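Please, structure for the following, as tokens.
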Amino acid sequence: MSKPTLPLAVSLGDPSGIGPDVLLKAWTQREKHSLPNLFVAGDAEFLRDRAQLLKLDVRFNDYKADGIQSDSLAVLDINHPLSGKTGVPESKDAPATIKSIDTCVELTLKNQATAIVTCPINKHVLYEAGFKQPGHTEYLAELGQNHTGKPIKPVMMLAGPELRTIPVTIHIPLHDVPNTLTTQIIIQTATIAAHDLKLRFGINKPRLAISGLNPHAGENGSMGYQDAEIILPAIKALKSAGINAWGPLPADTMFHKQARKTYDVAICMYHDQALIPAKTLGFDDAVNVTLGLPFIRTSPDHGTAYDIAGTGKANPSSFIAALKMAYEMSMQS
């Protein structure tokens, strides 16, 4: 992998979780995996302490926009000292977590970084510090909207070596899904997916397989009306707009090996319908990608994992995959 002109900006995430662990582990494996240049918005002293705890040999330097030193990890000081008590989340560290995200977004929008890779956060800790958005993705969309002045609908895509999936509805209770699902939301989600797969992934005419909601995609209305009355009209509208979409397909037959060869992304109706197959096929190397933003954002597909933070057990594979995917996406744009 050749080195990009601009580095990737990495946000620190929750300092008490495994975000710093996978970042530091990935850095020590940068030559093995041919990782792109990067810098982290955070606190060098905190990262130095975590590296010592993990017994990792990492050198640090102050980030300078005019160049990245290949032998040391560049840290852009956000002027927010961290307690970062390993495995124990603290609300007093929340402002630093938010400041790290803000800094990465700002520099990327100013064309001082090529993309953003975010380490995991705990939104409940952030809520205690006054965080207003439902989650990480929604906050990034707000920052993007503030920059562009236009409404932004972020679309979550889980991307692994064997499968890409997108849930139309995300973090809501399952019993709310049927009443939340609309033809317009499906059209909007699929349109953004088709646009970004072409722009960011170099797929000239993306193939979108769209799942049904009910067993057997409703089986002609005998198992629910949504497939025929909500999902099918969305597919017809997408086809009319020139988007290569088809369905609704029974979700239980969409994800076997032969079926996966027929599409570039599976658009699913709810969270687990999309994430169970994606994580089953690529648990250690799946990447969370946010489509629809005015900048590139990827993240590892795992949470803060407080129980193993600082123990050396955290697997950096998903974070490494997120770094590589962010770079590859930036090369397409």
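Residues 155-289 form a domain with the Isopropylmalate Dehydrogenase fold (CATH 3.40.718.10). Residues 183-201 form the longest helix (19 residues).
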